[in-house]
Amino acid sequence: MAMAINTTLLFTPEAMAKVDARVIASGIPGPELMRAAGASVVACLLSSWPNVARAVVLCGPGNNGGDGHIAASLLAAFGVPVLRHGYAPRSGTDAAAASATCEHAILPLGDYRPLAGDVVIDALFGAGLDRAVGAEVAAVIGRIAEAGTPVLAIDLPSGLSGRTGRPTGPVISAERTVTFAGLKPGHVLMPGRELCGVTTLADIGMPARLVASDDPLWINGPHLYGPTLPRREAADHKYSRGHLAVMSGPLISGGAARLSAMAGLRIGAGLVTLGTPPGAVMAQSAHLTAIMQHRVGSSADLAAWLSDPRLSALVLGPGFGDLEKARDYAKVLANARRYLVLDADGLTAFAGRTGELGDMFAGETRLVITPHEGEFRRLFPAIAEDETLSKVDRARQAAALLNAVVVYKGADTVIAASDGRAAINADAPPWLATAGSGDVLSGVIGGLLAQSMPIFEAACAGVALHGAAASQAGPGMTAEDLAGLVRPPAV
Ligand SMILES: NC(=O)C1=CN([C@@H]2O[C@H](COP(=O)(O)OP(=O)(O)OC[C@H]3O[C@@H](n4cnc5c(N)ncnc54)[C@H](OP(=O)(O)O)[C@@H]3O)[C@@H](O)[C@H]2O)[C@@H](O)CC1
Ligand SMILES: Nc1ncnc2c1ncn2[C@@H]1O[C@H](COP(=O)(O)OP(=O)(O)O)[C@@H](O)[C@H]1O
Ligand SMILES: [K+]
């Protein structure tokens, strides 16, 4: 039978509980899963800390604790000194059976004092955590952090929500985390990703067909967008590869639009034109070679330009400046049924007016918005303030409100569509946090839209390829370097 880890879907704790139930109902007993989970924890511990002096298993009352008991008994069998501190399992449960396999007594949690050479196995709470940990757990978390004792977390560091990636209160900071069958949002959303340390996904013998979920939530990657990437054909000519327009701001802030336009060209749009206000045309000309210009000073100019049907996608916002004009242009673009990437000033222009923006772009989804945290808060204050919502929930709600694809940026960029599909991008390097890198992203997405990629897939691919270019550039990268390194993958 094919056993599996699922490396593309993300499973909320609720979705993973359904997987568990399905697997057990299929005839694989819970204790067997627990034994495999405990064994994978031991394998990780012994390969990462081969010189461990003492393995200290902190065990909670549920199945997370059960995995810890299995690990404790295996480690003892291997001759590793073992200590168990924590709570007794509830009687009659799989965790109780697991606990009975270990002869070491369970000492009170509060009695644990870290020693040099200890490695802590955190088996207190995993997917079942639903509130802040109590004072006793908080105290031991504090002592471990103070002593700098390395922690290997089972499933999730205790105190971290697997759904939101946010701590519910005091939280373990792990060096490594071993989780099972599939990642949870909490492993990739910030700050969860950092609190987990290095996360390993272990195969515990669940049949592949059962490691599935109805929730359309993925890790971002080519499994989402690969089949829809623009294909290069021998008969291609520049017009067949799409025409992207980037609206330029005034003289003082034209660089942002240039970065965006350069990225659009690099990602493969056949033509890229700056729509430039008359006062900035000369200055832009001095900087441009492959990128063309068209004079656009008013909504009427823009509407006239859009009579060219080849102009299929536009970017509006980077360095744009004039908020009223941004609103007018967005309306013209919506009426002309063009694809629009709205970024930066284009987003600020609609603060307090998201209803208006959603109405403009009703019907087939043609709008992508790319807010960073500040812009998201400005646009959707009520959603942003709701502490019960994860970043995925927030992006999904915003997407549904606007009938748009939302690219909610950050170290854990979330891409969400109005139909509920969502992806989390977890591998962008931190040196992307540099002025102008967001302008490059809007151009990448715009360039892919101009090449007729479907809108959600274009946004996912844009975020992934933007991150890949940054990884290639390395630390010290500037937005100019980044725009120069963006490339379409070979298809
Ligand atoms: N998915 C898989 O593939 C597999 C999963 N497995 C493992 O199962 C784990 C999930 O087990 P689980 O459901 O028993 O939950 P777990 O995290 O042990 O919590 C236990 C109980 O603690 C309580 N509690 C909650 N918060 C609390 C707080 N702050 N302070 C105090 N108490 C708190 C709450 O009970 P309550 O007190 O509310 O009645 C809760 O029910 C999973 O993480 C993985 O390690 C593997 O064994 C096999 C394959
Ligand atoms: N710590 C980080 N790790 C990875 N990517 C990041 C990080 N911080 C920001 N980014 C990415 O860098 C880009 C910054 O965009 P933005 O904030 O709009 O910058 P700017 O307005 O200067 O262009 C986004 O793609 C964002 O997701
Ligand atoms: K844990």
From TrEMBL:
Top-level lineage group: Bacteria
As its record notes, the protein acts as a catalyst of: (6S)-NADHX + ADP = AMP + phosphate + NADH + H(+); (6S)-NADPHX + ADP = AMP + phosphate + NADPH + H(+); (6R)-NADPHX = (6S)-NADPHX; (6R)-NADHX = (6S)-NADHX
The record's listing under CDD domains reads: YXKO-related
Q: Where is the signal peptide?
A: none
Q: Write down what this protein is called.
A: Bifunctional NAD(P)H-hydrate repair enzyme
Q: What does UniProt list as this organism's lineage?
A: Bacteria, Pseudomonadati, Pseudomonadota, Alphaproteobacteria, Hyphomicrobiales
Kindly list the GO molecular function terms attached to this UniProt entry: ADP-dependent NAD(P)H-hydrate dehydratase activity; ATP binding; kinase activity; metal ion binding; NAD(P)HX epimerase activity
Give the function comment from the record.
Answer: Catalyzes the epimerization of the S- and R-forms of NAD(P)HX, a damaged form of NAD(P)H that is a result of enzymatic or heat-dependent hydration. This is a prerequisite for the S-specific NAD(P)H-hydrate dehydratase to allow the repair of both epimers of NAD(P)HX.
Q: Check the record and name the PROSITE patterns matching this protein.
A: YJEF_C_2, YJEF_C_3, YJEF_N
Keywords on record = ATP-binding, Isomerase, Kinase, Lyase, Metal-binding, Multifunctional enzyme, NAD, NADP, Nucleotide-binding, Potassium, Transferase
One GO BP annotation here? metabolite repair
Cofactor stoichiometry and binding? Binds 1 potassium ion per subunit.
According to the record's subunit comment, the protein's assembly and interactions are: Homotetramer.
